[in-house]
Amino acid sequence: VHGTLDLHLKHSAKTPIDILVVDTEGNDPLVLEGAREALSRTRYLEFEYHHLAKWSTLTLRSVVDTLNRSGFDCFWAGTDRVWRITGCWDDLFEFHAWSNVVCGRRGDIWHRVLQAIDITLTQPLKPKPSRDAL
User: DSSP string of 59-96?
Assistant: First the structure.
């Protein structure tokens, strides 16, 4: 399949996208870049973050900042909880380990659900420093 997500959705109805999950083995930032119109209709977004492919040259912070400007708050996804990233940035978050990030559109019920399970205030997330940083 070639082209952007926006190109593939060009002729579809302009209805809200309830859930958009991106898992492209490291090319998630490229998919998100080509999904600007789709993201404007998306309520809940999930993508992978790690060290492969495009993630080797892009920062998570740049992607989270772009999503923030598009109306999303993003969180690290745990098994049954999340930790807020948007507005709580720490440079240690650029650890390039296999992780999932979830984002909810501010004002949407998905955003309220993520806020309800956000434990940032009670259990701040501090990634372990890499061996290189020690």
Answer: -HHHHHHHHHHTTEEEEEE-SS-EEE-TT---GGG---
User: Which ranges constitute the DSSP H helices of 1-134?
Assistant: 5-8, 28-33, 36-40, 60-69, 109-117
d(CA 96, CA 3) in angstroms, rounded, equals 27
Tokens encoding 51:
């060290």
Report the DSSP pairing between strands 42-49 and 17-22: parallel
Q: pLDDT of 35-53, one tens digit each?
A: 999 999 999 999 999 988 9
Environment class of residue 80 by beta-carbon count within 10 Å: exposed (0-12), middle (13-18) or buried (19+)?
A: exposed
79-104: pLDDT as tens digits:
888 999 999 888 888 887 889 999 99
